[in-house]
Amino acid sequence: FSGPFTDVVTTNLKLRNPSDRKVCFKVKTTAPRRYCVRPNSGIIDPGSSVIVSVMLQPFDYDPNEKSKHKFMVQTTYAPPNISDMEAVWKEAKPDELMDSKLRCVFEMPNENDKLNDIDASKPAPVLNTSKQDGPMPKPHSVSLNDTETRKLMEECKRLQAEIMKLTDENRHLRDEGLRLRKVAHSDKSGSPTALALRDNGSNSLPSLLVVIAAIFIGFFLGKFIL
Prior knowledge:
This protein has helices spanning 85-91, 111-121, 130-133, 139-142, 146-186, 192-224; strands at 9-16, 23-29, 35-38, 41-44, 49-56, 70-77, 98-103.
């Protein structure tokens, strides 16, 4: 019997009849108040088996106390006509009885077995690898909430539209500058008006690119640094 013994502990006995005749069996114990045996007697057909359940009642287990409980299984050939099982055992002669004695052994599970059972019943823990890499960053520095994300997307769209508008204007000014340079080149007289227009067209391109870059860099610096 394996503990703990705070509840009923059941052990099964398998009795087999290897003979070609019916056999009557009976199970006895030296501690009938401690055990419940089902069935405690019966008949086994030739070549058949029967399972006997032995139920140990709860008790205070003392590992230093040696068990003295024993069981005895008695068997005898069944008579042709059985009407009273008690009469069979009373009328049976000693040389017609066969008995097998069994000594009870109480075992408590080891502490390691208990720990293994407890660990097996618990779900597997989820490993947190972030602790190995370092402290967790603050939530607001990792991700943005929905409102901030929506605002950022709208601002990006607005900047993209503004950049496209400035790009078109830059293209227009570049084309206008090319046209003015052609006019200035074809103007053999080298008039001051043509030279002034050419200088204005060439100077407007760098300043416009500086404005676009400043707007784009300033926006993202303000969002992610401040």
